[in-house]
Batch of 2 targets.
Target 1
Amino acid sequence: MATRAAKSSAKLGPTGRPERFYPVPPKLDRHGPARIISMCNQKGGVGKTTTTINLGAALARYGRRVLAVDFDPQGALSAGLGVAAHDVPTIYDLMLGKVKDPVEVIQPSTTEGLDVIPANIDLSAAEVHLVSEVAREQILAGVLRKVADRYDVILIDCQPSLGLLTVNALTASHGVLIPLACEYFALRGVALLIETVEKVRDRLNPSLELDGIIATMYDPRTLHAREVLERVVATFDEKVLDTVINRTVKLPDASVAAKPILDYAPENAASEAYLQLARELVLRGTVA
Ligand SMILES: Nc1ncnc2c1ncn2[C@@H]1O[C@H](COP(=O)(O)OP(=O)(O)O)[C@@H](O)[C@H]1O
Ligand SMILES: [Mg+2]
């Protein structure tokens, strides 16, 4: 009874858990080696790219050195951060060994502390080229190993598929974050995704962890979104992060403006949501 009373007096967050306080993370006095995290969901349009950009910018705001890797031939991450992706060396050139040193490919974004490895449509040919390579699943891991010491976090923005590129991302990673849009069929496909993560862990990367599930595009005014989120929490429990990203047109607007939301609309609730996500991940030990 006492717990029930305590529960009802505490303000509950969208996940139904009591709201918690996430302190501003202490400054790091040294940097690296990076923890590498794949932003992964084979469903398109769930917020992978938006979360990579804005979580990356939020972690950079807290003094973390962040490298965002565009690993989708659509190049939305590169576009959303305003970095050149055409007529410049890209992740494709690194994957194929045409460029050996990632430093030649890395570009600074307009956010201090946030760098980018861009991608463009060339990357769509990579799977075909890599199929016959020795250790074809480990190529991205080899590329990122060369620069891991320079960063605290490397975020890989995966394409919406579970093909060889995504397996490369998972093989290169310490952890996986899964953005889930609070919409019909959000859970469809997640079992297959988690199975893929487990297969990569068993066969290629024994230390791979499922770091968490991030509910995105949440509209607290609709019963439907609340029901979806309730089901997600019932299914994945503690894996679901407390921080939920609400639906707001400011996020697509910021992408069009090629800026993180923190620069485009610092007063918008989505800016605070991504800052809180960064603080929660530091507190959970997911990132330094
Ligand atoms: N919280 C949000 N609210 C509203 N729109 C969003 C939100 N997050 C992402 N979007 C928009 O939804 C679309 C898909 O998001 P995106 O991050 O590109 O997904 P993915 O990378 O998984 O395909 C984009 O136009 C993006 O701007
Ligand atoms: Mg994307």
Target 2
Amino acid sequence: MNVVPLFQDKKEANNLWIETIQWWSDPTIKIRFVESGDDYWFIMGADSKKPETNQSLFKVLKKSENYERFKNGHGGEAYLRLGVYSQKFKNDVKDDAVCNCGHIKEDHDSEDDDECYYEDCNCKKFESFQLNLYPRKKKKTVTDIKFVQEDQVKDDPLTWNCLYINKYKKKEQ
Ligand SMILES: [Zn+2]
Ligand SMILES: [Zn+2]
């Protein structure tokens, strides 16, 4: 399965890859999911061949179906890639492009108004989210993946450092 942290733009993803992630040595990459209520912390770190530019990364995200699917299906190994979502409208795509409503562009009104023709569909405007991977052909193989509850983070330096700096310390101040 793939782990694809998402970024706002291509440049941000490319820079992170070039400056940090490409120097990570695959067997040392750790990915941690710390569950905290409806949210989870995605935390990632590794030993680097260029320690001076090394950093660990985290994001706080809402648990989702994708999250559960990954949790149950990863089997101890995943490819790490970086992704950028782009939002496309009717004029940006071909006739067979799929709208977020699940129906293709041709099923949407072709005049100014792009309402979907399917009767049971509430879609009023063609919009399509496309996920692109950057840099295109690069990936890392991660074999150290763990899911932990928030009260277990003390046992793991990567998760403890991250939550301490970004959550507990801030509350103390
Ligand atoms: Zn639609
Ligand atoms: Zn539709």
